[in-house]
Predict the 3D structure of the following.
Amino acid sequence: WDPKRYLPKKNEPARVEGLTTVTYDLVGRTDVYLDVPAYLCMGQGVVVIRVAVGQNGSMRKAEIDEAHTRADDCMRENALSSAQRARFDASSSAADPQRGTMTYIFLAQ
């Protein structure tokens, strides 16, 4: 009997190599820079981010859509950070800002 196997262990940070997919709903836009996070979170979940993108393609605002998000705080933070760094192509015909969503799906191992 080894007590180390049964006693509570400290929570130590660990990198989890789960898959993440990202989709976005911005009519007529293509991504110039879209960070797909390799995350530090356990489990799986879906994070929906409401975004506002300027005509020049820069991210003006990104916030979590609580009604459609099913994920823990770790996934929420990674998805929001990724969305804030996203850049899209310029479009002089797009609304200023153009509103849409980005969806991050974190898959368990």
Remarks:
- The first helix runs from residue 73 to 85.
